[in-house]
Amino acid sequence: MHIKQLRVRPRKAQPANPCAAELMSLLSCWTASSDLHSLGPCAEASQAMIQCMRTTPFGAKKHKPSINFHLRRLNKIL
Known about the structure:
Layout: H1 20-33, H2 43-55, H3 67-77
Helix pairs in contact: 1-2
């Protein structure tokens, strides 16, 4: 089936996680020292992660139309 008016947008690339390095250091510290409460050797990594989460601006999620919305649009064309 071929529909002339139907257009599909390409997927956008996912943005990189700005706190990925801090998260990896915190997880590796937890794995190496079993300090899950971040009171001992993981306190610095925990503080770095908290600081990164506080200072990084996270945008609000955009509303993603459901499949039913697109099917209704397509039904009007057909």
